[in-house]
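Example with several molecule types.
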Amino acid sequence: AQKVTQAQTEISVVEKEDVTLDCVYETRDTTYYLFWYKQPPSGELVFLIRRNSFDEQNEISGRYSWNFQKSTSSFNFTITASQVVDSAVYFCALSGNSGNTPLVFGKGTRLSVIA
Amino acid sequence: NAGVMQNPRHLVRRRGQEARLRCSPMKGHSHVYWYRQLPEEGLKFMVYLQKENIIDESGMPKERFSAEFPKEGPSILRIQQVVRGDSAAYFCASSPRRGEAFFGQGTRLTVV
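Resulting structure tokens for the full complex:
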């Protein structure tokens, strides 16, 4: 069975601080995909990143960076120099590539960035 | 290229009524997924469809819920005889292939 755990339910930081959101996953698939989505207060789901299991290179996109470590089954997300607009719920998700597996989501981490 | 379109954005139903949620996938996408997000929770998979076929409905409640994705037109998630516990945000995602999903803005169903 596949499972995604986001142990941090809520995080509050002061603007310009760096913050890391943790994501730990479980899967028996050898090929799988990991995702991060942002859900701002308006409610839509905003795609941030998709990473396949064969690519362990860390990725940076502006103030966002992702650290994928297969050895610890983790796919952590760091926001550098946080801003108030980063306040949202962030979801980590997993999709296997065997059969027709849909996305399995973690319960999300609510990030509040205080000015 | 328009994104995944869901309508209505907000839907209010009285207990016992039917709710119909529509999802138009992105052009060229033949895979549609429905997810439900209960308040303060993550998204839970409900059903996976391809054109005219239900591929995986393991997340669908056994009663009152049904889904279709006809050859022409949007995918429909239908909830019959709604109850208060059905109040949630329902998200549709479409994909050109497995393992990738683009989400609509969701339909927020409120049962009063």
